[in-house]
Amino acid sequence: MIRRSILALAAAAVLVLAPTAAFGYGASDYTDKGSVSDTTPAVGQPFTVTVKGPASASVTLTVTSNPASISDSAITIAGVKALVKETNAAGDATFTVTLGEPGTYTLTVTDTVTGAVISSQVVVVAAAGALATTGSNSGALGIGAGAVLLVGVGLVALARRRRETPID
């Protein structure tokens, strides 16, 4: 009985502590080590993509549009659609990007040598003059609430009338 309890306790400890060993790993893990200065830029507004990768390594920024029908000419990365840059001694690289059409764009930075993804960011460009939708469209909800209120008022009036009417 005691042996079974000790084995169960050891198994529970292994299950609890095993994932923490994996969390400690990160010597050359550069996953999602990037940022975008503006995730909702206006059409034609330049913004920067900054990544932290291996020191003095070649990295590539690729921009993919959604919908795919957005032409390549609508994407500018300092004059091109994909750009390879060398990171500095600290592992930093900065790209300036301008998107010329509304849509959703995925910006992926990869290590040019290994192909490992260093950062993946999503940027949404709204149409010129388009405003963000906030709140809710509660017109139908308001009509429904008004109808329920009227039914409730009618039922209260009917109950009062019944109470006031004498029973013969």
Q: What is the strand arrangement across the widest sheet?
A: 1-2-6-4
Distance between the termini: 80 Å
* Uncertain regions spanning at least 5 consecutive residues: none
Work out the radius of gyration: 30 Å
CATH superfamily of the domain at 28-125: Immunoglobulins
- What series of H and E elements makes up the topology? HEEEEEEEEH
> How helical, in percent, are the residues?
25-40%
Question: What would you say this structure looks like, in words?
Answer:
With 168 residues, the protein is α+β, with helices and mostly antiparallel strands. It has a domain at 28-125: Immunoglobulin-like. Helix content is 29%, strand content 31%. It has two helices and eight strands. It has helices spanning 2-23, 139-164; strands at 34-36, 47-52, 58-66, 75-77, 82-86, 92-99, 103-111, 117-125. The strands form two sheets. A four-stranded antiparallel β-sheet has the order 1-2-6-4, with no helix packed on it. Strands 5-3-7-8 form a four-stranded antiparallel β-sheet, with no helix packed on it. A hairpin with a 5-residue loop joins strand 7 and strand 8 (117-125). The longest helix is centred in the last third of the chain and has 26 residues, at 139-164.
Write out key terms for the chains shown.
alpha+beta; Immunoglobulin-like
Summarize the structure.
This protein has 168 residues and is of the alpha+beta class. The chain has helices spanning 2-23, 139-164; strands at residues 34-36, 47-52, 58-66, 75-77, 82-86, 92-99, 103-111, 117-125.
Secondary structure: elements and pairs:
Layout: H1 2-23, E1 34-36, E2 47-52, E3 58-66, E4 75-77, E5 82-86, E6 92-99, E7 103-111, E8 117-125, H2 139-164
